[in-house]
Amino acid sequence: MSTSTAVSTTTPLVELSDTHVVHKARSGGLFTRDRVYALTGADFTVAPGETVGVVGESGCGKSTLAKVLVGVQPPTSGQVSFRGDDLWTMKAAERRSAIGTGTGMIFQDPSTALNRRLTVRQILRDPLDVHRRGTTRERDERVRELMGLVGLPRALADGLPGQLSGGQRQRVAIARALALSPDLVVADEPTSALDVSVRAQILNLLLDLKERLGLALVFVSHDIQTVRRMSDRVITMYLGRIVEESPADEVTDGARHPYTRALFSATPGLLDPIDPIPLVGPVPSATHPPSGCPFRTRCWKATEVCAEAMPEFTAASIPGHRFRCHHPVEEGRATRDLVAQAVAAVPDVPTKPVADAPDTTSSVQPHGPKDPREP
Questions:
Q1: Hey, how many other C-beta atoms are within 10 angstroms of the C-beta on 198?
Q2: Helix (H, G, I), strand (E, B), or coil: what is residue 141?
Q3: 266-276 per-position pLDDT tens digit
């Protein structure tokens, strides 16, 4: 369910244009090392006040995208703009000031994201000290304000992270991200390390803060239903590529890319449960990605054209919805029909749901077209 009904049409807060991130791997030959294509050709914007959810399997590039958005990871090529200015053509001091004061990041595990030797008061004051915000008295007042904002009692100000519960530590991490009143907060799996009983509290806190402070929020998570509830727009990633972008209220039954449908079909449902769409074949490697569409090695709709070129974005009939697929799901097609279609395409292969950590050593052969680069 969307958290707001209107998104500003002004200049994007953050914009990525054909952004690539390539790492050198430890593997390779004697004189050359393999390359890991962590992010490929990302075109992505975040508007002021908007919440964008990012979903995909482990290793698809979600965290890399988050790091690029907050300036932690420089792109190998392409452009990253913040408030209309190219981040990586700025001087280092200008970039540090723009990103440090304009963005905040909430990490996955609060127990490792917080310095265990510092008290809560010192942790929250640190950004204010680094960027020299206000006088000493104003900084102390800001710390008290932040603790009240996230629901932490003042008695914990002199406590260490090890003396707090997991939920309290994550509230400290959220308060630290908000210390400099940023316009953009990137939350990378903010609830995955917390107990189920605490997750709802943290999610409700994030929603409340977004509405009260007018934040733009990028929410990265494996919890697909949570992403759908938190977001205005949902981005689906596969092997470093953005393959679909859809309004949150359309993503479950209106997604046009086969992978997005398979991903959401794997989410358990109580009211109208269905079998997940089976995906077979090897999961491709980010070191040696297949030619054309990277999903073709597991897609039941793949043909020879899928191996020839990665399709460009196609706009759907709904505004704000676009996808990259040679053979998209027909508009209005029910997910149950796709399950039957996928099973019929691979009748001898057992049903296998989309996995968080798929087995890359599977001996099941792909039913997609052969890579033309292979002998």
A1: 17
A2: helix
A3: 877 655 667 88
Sheet containing strand 233-238, edge to edge, reads 103-106, 184-188, 216-220, 51-55, 233-238, 241-247, 322-323, 314-315
Taking alpha carbons only, the member of 330, 204, 334, 229 closest to residue 275 is 334
Question: Encoding tokens for residue 50?
Answer: 């908007």
What is the chain's Cα-based Rg? 22
Rounded to whole angstroms, how far apart are CA atoms 74 and 65? 10
Is residue 238 within 8 Å of 294, Cβ to Cβ? yes
% of residues, the chain, pLDDT over 70? 88
With a CB cutoff of 8 Å and minimum separation 6, the contacts of 68 are 16, 19, 21, 39, 42, 75, 80
Torsion of CA 174, 217, 353, 300, to 10 degrees: -160
In the sheet with 33-46, reading across from the earlier edge strand, the strands are 33-46, 14-28, 77-82, 85-86
- Is residue 135 within 8 A of residue 215, CB to CB? The reply is no
**DSSP codes, 64-122:** HHHHHHTTSS--SEEEEEETTEEGGGS-HHHHHHHHHHHEEEE-S-HHHHS-TTS-HHH
Q: What pLDDT score does 282 carry?
A: 77
Rounded Cα gap, residues 311 and 322, in angstroms: 12
Provide the pLDDT for residue 3: 44
Classify residue 370 as exposed, middle or buried by CB count within 10 Å of its CB (0-12, 13-18, 19+). Answer: exposed
- Residue 269: the pLDDT is 63
pTM comes to 0.85
CA distance 88 to 85: 9
Location of structure tokens 């054209």: 305
